[in-house]
Specification:
- The complex is a heterodimer of chains A (152) and B (275).
- In chain A, helix 1 runs antiparallel to helix 3.
- Chain A is of the alpha+beta class and 152 residues long.
- In chain A, strands 3-2-5-6 form a 4-stranded antiparallel sheet, with no helix packed on it.
- Helix content of chain A is 30%, strand content 23%.
- Chain B has one domain.
- In chain B, a hairpin with a 5-residue loop joins strand 2 and strand 3.
- About 8% of the residues of chain B have low confidence.
- The chains are: A alpha+beta (152), B alpha+beta (275).
- Chains A and B meet through helix 1, strand 5, strand 6 and helix 3 of A and helix 1 of B.
Chain lengths: 152, 275
């Protein structure tokens, strides 16, 4: 009996066990991306230049690396929880520069950026799953409480 | 009684866990920018002439250059925690929260010596991000040379060999942004070390035989050919006065532009001012 309190906790974690399947899920979300455009001082784009992005919480180690497009562009989505200066370094053939991009006031963006859409579950399915989870707790509680009700 | 506790526990523990489980765990990377910005550490200042100073290279005119000495006299080197970040293409002055003097007297270094950047000084400094650097090259009052920069070496082409000494005495002041290179420099943590670099792009004077002829580096460089024509008995020793008199005005103008543009921070550009 002493171990029975584990039961509701175990039930909580049951739905979290990953299910192995081979279906494909494609999601989408709207985000606030940062796009840079790198060019030489004569206006020529820095094609296929090395790009290094540093997050505000770790300016020493790269957060992301990449290559510019043919027209010198590069886009990335910063972690909206990390407010501050995002530093971007662009280099090619002995030329290079830094740019600092401030990211702030991003709570709203953070919220919208987290929510992936278009996945495998509809809203109705999500509500149904939540209701079943809650009912699982209530049912478990009623199970343990049944003797008390019988006695009364 | 025990069962009632189980009931309450089930509701109060289980439902919050369920609610928490429905949220994605994306809040685990909180910003933490200020932990390292207390205390102090060590800034090492180095001067770098890159491979052009230390190894044989080909000029834009296909001369092969070996530099025995590249003397540069540095002075008034200062590191800054600039805010906003200094942009040498747009700004005229460095605006800084923190300024640290790394060198406050003239010091001549030989960039051709050894096989790595030359250490100039070591300074204790408050922790922080040093994202701007200012320095001067000056005419030394004592030592091996009296020019702000001296290039001494041998040039060879088609069996001809010229020993040359170029005394390029043009004092300059440079204001630069953050170092740009393979690694990031200037991030100083408490009790840590970082390095800042004054970089000299000698290919701006001689050009680069490995680059295309129409590449900017070769279009803007004077090369060695015009100087080779001034050599006598396979030897050339010239200063800026001589070069101004002997080179064409276009070549001399190009040379002076290259000298002024020598100073960099890695690949990052600087704002240069004549002293």
């Amino acid at each position: 009996m002493r171990c029975l309190w584990f039961l509701p906790v175990a039930i909580v974690f049951l739905p979290a066990v990953p299910v192995f399947a081979h279906s494909t899920v494609i999601e989408h979300r709207q985000t606030n991306a940062i796009e840079i455009r790198a060019m030489y001082d004569n206006g020529e784009p820095m094609t296929e230049a090395q790009v290094t992005v540093y997050a505000p919480d770790n300016p020493s180690d790269p957060w992301l690396k990449g290559i510019t497009t043919e027209d010198g562009r590069f886009a990335f989505v910063p972690n909206p929880d990390m407010e501050g200066e995002w530093d971007v370094k662009v280099r090619k053939a002995g030329h290079g520069d830094f740019i600092s991009v401030p990211v702030e006031g991003s709570q709203q963006a953070a919220q919208s950026g987290k929510n992936w859409q278009g996945g495998g579950y509809t809203t109705l399915q999500k509500i149904l799953m939540a209701a079943l989870g809650v009912w699982g707790f209530i049912g478990t509680a009623l199970f343990f409480a049944r003797n008390r009700f019988h006695q009364t | 009684m025990v069962k009632k506790e189980l009931f309450v526990t089930g509701l109060f523990v289980g439902i919050p866990l369920l609610i928490a489980g429905c949220d994605t765990a994306t809040n685990n990377e909180a910003t933490n920018t200020t932990d390292s910005e207390t205390g102090s550490g060590t800034i090492s200042l180095v001067a770098n002439g890159e491979a052009f100073a230390r190894e044989e290279f080909a000029t834009k005119n296909d001369w092969t250059i070996n530099l025995d000495h590249v003397y540069v006299t540095l002075d008034q080197v200062k590191a800054y925690q600039s805010d906003p970040a200094f942009d040498p293409d747009q700004d005229q002055e460095i605006t800084a929260e923190q300024e640290v003097t790394l060198l406050n007297e003239a010091k001549t270094v030989d960039l051709a010596k050894g096989n790595k950047p030359i250490k100039v000084s070591e300074t204790q400094a408050p922790a922080g991000e040093y994202n701007a650097l200012a320095w001067q090259i000056v005419s030394p009052e004592q030592g091996k040379t009296d020019s702000a920069m001296v290039l001494e070496g041998t040039a060879q082409k088609d069996g001809e060999s010229i020993d040359f000494v170029l005394n390029l005495d043009q004092p300059l002041s440079y204001q630069c942004g953050e170092y740009v290179g393979d690694v990031r420099k200037g991030i100083l943590e408490a009790d840590g070390e970082t390095e800042l670099e004054t970089t000299f792009h000698l290919d701006h004077i001689f050009g680069d035989g490995e680059a295309e002829p129409d590449d900017d580096i070769n279009q803007n460089a004077v090369g060695f050919e015009p100087m080779a024509e001034l050599a006598m008995n396979n030897r050339l020793e010239a200063d800026l006065n001589t070069l101004e008199q002997e080179l064409s005005s276009q070549e001399y103008e190009r040379l002076m532009g290259a000298i002024k543009g020598l100073g960099h921070v890695g690949e990052g550009h600087c704002l240069e001012t004549e002293i």
